[in-house]
Each structure stands twice: as C-alpha cells, then as structure tokens.
Amino acid sequence: MLNLQQIVPNLFLQDNYNVLHISAMYSREDVVKLLLTKKGVDVYSTGGSRNQTAVHLVASRQTGTATAILRALLQAAGKDIRLKADGKGKIPLLLAVEAGNQSMCRELLSTLTSEQLKAASANGDTALHLAVRRKDIDMVRILVDYGTSVDIRNGEGQTPLHIAAAEGDELLVKYFYGVRASASVTDNQDRTPMHLAAENGHANIIELLADKFKASIFERTKDGSTLMHIASLNGHADCAMMLFKKGVYLHMPNKDGARSIHTAARYGHVGIINTLLQKGEKVDVTTNVSFTSELCRDNLWAPPFPE
C-alpha cells in the first residue's frame, strides 16, 4: 500500500510547488524541519514559474523571521545550493538583496562569500549593483564589509558608482567616496559616472564627483562631445551652470564643429540656450558646415548625438 507520508515532501501541486516549497514560502519553520527529516526530500527540487528551490523562496522573503528556515535548508542541502540560479538567473543572495533582508544575506554569505558576491543576474547586475539600485545603503555597507569590490562592473560595464551617479543618490555617492571607489571607470559606451550625472541632470552629483573624487570635467565622448554637450542635449540648465562653474569651456566643439548651443537649439532647450548666451556664447557661431544655432533650431541641421 502506498505510504503517502513518505512521498509528501516531494508531492507536487498544480503550480509545480511541492510541500517543502509551500512551507518555506510561508515561513512554516516546524513543517520545514519535519519535512527535512523525511527520507527522499530533495532540497534542490525546483518549482513555480521561476524554477526556484525552497532556498530561493525563503531568501525572497522581506522578513528576517525566516532566517532559521534558511539555515535549516542550507544545512540539509550543502553549501553549493547558494550558487544555484533560478529560472531568471538569480542566486538566493540576489533575491535576498532585492528583498532588503539583511539577516538572510549574512546567513548566505557565511560561506562561498566571494563566489556569491561575484555572481550576476541575467542582465549582469551583482548583489552590490542591485543594492545600489534599491538605494539601500545599509545593504551596500554589508556587502562591502563582506569584501565585494566597490568597482565591480555589471553587464553594461558600469560600477555601482555609475548607477548612484545616474540616480542622483548623493548619500551613496558620498559613501563610495569614503570607500575609495573610482570615478574614472568607463562603461561599455565609454561613459564615466560624470557623464551619467550630466545626462540625467544631477548637478549636485557633478559637483561631488569634481570636488571629492577629482573626476575630470573635460571628458569627451567618441564624437568629441563634452559634458556640456551632454547636459545641453538633455536640457539640464542647472548642470550646464555647474559645469561652467567648474571650468568646462562653452566654446569647445565636437568633431563636427558643433558647440553646446547647437545641440540645445536642435532640441529646443530654451533654458540651456539662455544660460549659454548669458555666459558669453555667440548666437551666430557656426558648425563646420556653417550652420548657426538659428538654423539648428529650425531643424535644418541635426548635430550628432553624443555617443
């Protein structure tokens, strides 16, 4: 006669979750520990649309009360389950970081620390990148304390400082200064954190990068565009003012001879044009093919995008 108790641990439900998955998902510690004593239970078994183990499911919980369940699962499975990715390419640590669960992260990082900190999601983000995207400075501190590189790069070639600069997160940028992160690393598009700050309109971050990190304000893109071109392209007058204050030249053209005022005129950024004119730019300055900002404004010439 079939003994149901013996097969319950791996009995799959309609959504492909087994009993161990369900008990882990709902933090039923007593049930999890009971199931782990049964012969044949498979902690590596996956379920759900994301093909997750019970370890993935419990690591995704936002409450720290399930840490004892995680510890029991890890002891039953062995340390290598920490490196098992789910159907979306995420190991348990990445899920715990996304949930903001510090106690789960500490438990997971108790062994195979370096391997987990270097592991990346399908889009290339490591645990530190995910923590920065969440603006979770406490989690960032934990990961750095456990030894992750502050200059680790994701699939786009970006460091955590790139992301903090793009998001305008002043608190995190200051933190990265304190742990000596580099502001000179370029991503896969040859952009530094300074480029991303200018592109996204964060004048305060430009000032921090220039003053604290001593980041260069004279960086150019592949087409010769300056940071002023980038701020002008995106209509960020406050960034243009900050760049001018820090010493970026108004009159520097890109490889096609286009100045920042031509770029601003092409995209109709009146505030930028007013700022540039107030600082001494000439309204009749021409590009290499003799187009003025007036003609750019009328769409008769299109300067290239800064690369």
From TrEMBL:
<keyword id="KW-0677">Repeat</keyword>
<feature type="repeat" description="ANK">
    <location>
        <begin position="156"/>
        <end position="188"/>
    </location>
</feature>
<dbReference type="Pfam" id="PF13637">
    <property type="entry name" value="Ank_4"/>
</dbReference>
<feature type="repeat" description="ANK">
    <location>
        <begin position="223"/>
        <end position="255"/>
    </location>
</feature>
<dbReference type="InterPro" id="IPR051631">
    <property type="entry name" value="Ankyrin-KH/SAM_domain"/>
</dbReference>
<feature type="repeat" description="ANK">
    <location>
        <begin position="123"/>
        <end position="155"/>
    </location>
</feature>
<dbReference type="Pfam" id="PF13606">
    <property type="entry name" value="Ank_3"/>
</dbReference>
<dbReference type="GO" id="GO:0005737">
    <property type="term" value="C:cytoplasm"/>
</dbReference>
<dbReference type="InterPro" id="IPR036770">
    <property type="entry name" value="Ankyrin_rpt-contain_sf"/>
</dbReference>
<keyword id="KW-0040">ANK repeat</keyword>
<dbReference type="InterPro" id="IPR002110">
    <property type="entry name" value="Ankyrin_rpt"/>
</dbReference>
<dbReference type="GO" id="GO:0045087">
    <property type="term" value="P:innate immune response"/>
</dbReference>
<feature type="repeat" description="ANK">
    <location>
        <begin position="189"/>
        <end position="212"/>
    </location>
</feature>
<feature type="repeat" description="ANK">
    <location>
        <begin position="256"/>
        <end position="288"/>
    </location>
</feature>
<protein>
    <submittedName>
        <fullName>Uncharacterized protein</fullName>
    </submittedName>
</protein>
<dbReference type="Pfam" id="PF12796">
    <property type="entry name" value="Ank_2"/>
</dbReference>
